[in-house]
Amino acid sequence: MYNRTIPFEKVDLVDYTAVDKVFSKYKIDCVIHFAALKSVGESVSQPLHYYENNVTGLLNLLRVMTSHNVKNMVFSSSCTVYGDPKFLPVTEEHPIGDCINPYGASKFFAEIILKDLCRSDPEWNVVSLRYFNPIGAHVSGDIGEHPNGVPSNLMPYVSQVAVGQRPHVNVFGSDYNTPDGTGIRDYIHIVDLAQAHIVSIHMLDTKCGLKIYNIGTGTGYSVLEIIKAMEKACGKPIPYKMCPRREGDAAAVYADANLAAKEMNWKTKFGLDRMCEDQWRWQVKNPRGYE
């Protein structure tokens, strides 16, 4: 897309030696740490797998970074560290750690590790971004989310139903204390999220220490509202089926992102309609993903 080749190394962060070899091969100034397992439902059934991958992987990465004197990181955290919110919208001052699934707990443990590391060594600079719910795709339709197997996130599942790959959307929970009974989340366009990372890299240059920000729009949408928005984008009805609640899901979570706006000069640009339009363009252009 950008007419340049980016070196790619496929390694498992749990393999310390493999990670160390990558750092020995390249001159690295900072790390954007995206690598983690992220399915809430799967984490409930496979907690040890999630802790090994998400926590041990981070520890190995930090040890390697320290040994190579690379002390700048942008970390992918998550709104799941808030658990079932005590108030909405959620600010960065909301208590964390009362997590309702192992995925969220793994991100909470990671934040504690990064906090202790920055406290012990002031040369470290970390920007931890608490993602809310990234959806959408690049406007070109060339880059989007292609899950392996059955999607665990709502938007790719909805778009796969819309394109005819699946019979209906399973809506997990219709009896939450929300206006239509379905779960509410803060959905953010993936391009807005990417821009937050670019701003974060520049922040590292200021020797910022540890910074933590909510990355969301500040608006919550229910599962049924997402389905209706995608129906508008694709121009057809999307069948759905009400199912029991899924263990580990909160009723409603949406962000107060004012701190990111104030300190990072970052704000979202794209609304829900654009998110669905871009998602649909990707799905139609790539019905079988990257195959």
UniProtKB/TrEMBL annotation:
Associated pathway: Carbohydrate metabolism; galactose metabolism
Assembly, per entry: Homodimer.
Keyword field: Carbohydrate metabolism, Galactose metabolism, Isomerase, NAD
GO molecular function: UDP-glucose 4-epimerase activity; UDP-N-acetylglucosamine 4-epimerase activity
Domain NAD(P)-binding, residue spans: 4-278
Cross-referenced CDD domains: UDP_G4E_1_SDR_e
Protein name: UDP-glucose 4-epimerase
Recorded superkingdom: Eukaryota
Source organism: Echinostoma caproni
GO BP annotations listed: galactose catabolic process via UDP-galactose, Leloir pathway
Cofactor requirement: NAD(+)
Database matches in Pfam families: GDP_Man_Dehyd
Catalysis: reaction(s): UDP-N-acetyl-alpha-D-glucosamine = UDP-N-acetyl-alpha-D-galactosamine; UDP-alpha-D-glucose = UDP-alpha-D-galactose
